[in-house]
């Protein structure tokens, strides 16, 4: 998904050395470049929100309000 020469700052050098503790699990501190799963999950949630917003917004204002409200709700 990205150029392989673009490494993140945590993996350049001697590998992944730093971790953070999240609810008792050690999670490696790596960047998200090249990661597709968070984007797929965000788009899936965005689709659910959009379908529900379209049910509420009147058809006359649909083209203006639906995208705006969908992005605002999902960004929260």
UniProtKB/TrEMBL annotation:
Localization of this protein: Cell membrane
Membrane topology: Multi-pass membrane protein
Residue stretches making up the Phosphotransferase system EIIC domain: 8-76
E.C. no: 2.7.1.69
Top-rank lineage group of the source organism: Bacteria
Coiled-coil region: none
Entry's Gene Ontology BP terms: phosphoenolpyruvate-dependent sugar phosphotransferase system; trehalose transport
Protein name: PTS system, sucrose-specific IIB component / PTS system, sucrose-specific IIC component
